[in-house]
Structure formats: C-alpha cells, structure tokens
Amino acid sequence: MGDEVSLWLFVVSAFTSATFFPGTADLLFLHLLDRGHSPWLLIVSGTLSSTVGAFVMYAIGWMGTRWAHRQWEKWRMRYPVFFQRVRRWGSVAGLLSPLPIVGDGIPLVLGLFRVSPVWSVLFLAAGKCLRFLVLWVVGEPLLMWFRLA
After folding, report:
1. What is the pTM for the complete model shown?
2. Where are the domains of the chain?
C-alpha cells in the first residue's frame, strides 16, 4: 500500500474513532510508525482528524438541545448552579475524550451543555494529541521489543 494511501486511511480512521463509529486509529498509528512514517506527521494528522471527529460529536450535542428544549429548560431551571459550573469548567473534560467507551460521549455532552466551543475544541485537541504522544512514547519501544523477539 502506498504511503499516501495509508496516511489517508489513518486520517479517516482517526476521524471515525472520535465518533461513535468504530475506528482503529491506535493500531494504524503503531503500524505506520513501524513502517517508518514520521511520528510527528502521524501525531499532527491524527490529532487534527480526531479533533474534527470530536467536534462533529460536539455539534450533534449542540443541536440536540433544540430537539429536547422543553425538558432541557426544566432541568436547567431546577439545577442552575450545576449548569453554570459545567458551562464554565466542563471544557476541561475534553482532555478525557480519548478514553475508551466514555470518551466518545464527552464531546456530545459538552455540546449538550453548550460549553464554549473554542475552549472545548482546544481541550479536545490537547487530549487527542496526548493520546498519540503516549502511543508514540509507549509504542515505539514495544515495537522494537517485538522486532527483537
């Protein structure tokens, strides 16, 4: 498979991994790293495409408040302090978006609570970048160990 095609497959996989669709971005990252691709190119492209996928989930959550407006307003009136705190500090939860299982729902919830889009995207991108950095730092020695075995 050509280098350009495999990089595009990685970008698509990173995008789908950030949504509720299954993706294999972590495995593709390690495979392309093993094949000699630039780790920085993989980290940047993976972070960008994964962040775009997370922002799609954020936008779906943002639009979801329009569908359930009456119910949402009732909850917002009942727990105003909670909603204010989530709107103010909730974007930090974007750092946890790369976590398995619960991480896909975090951007959706950030959108539902109408947390600041700018701060949400920044923390989502930081979390996604940390994910690929950890994969590189942990994965490269493991790949070398498996090659020696």
Report:
1. 0.85
2. 3-148
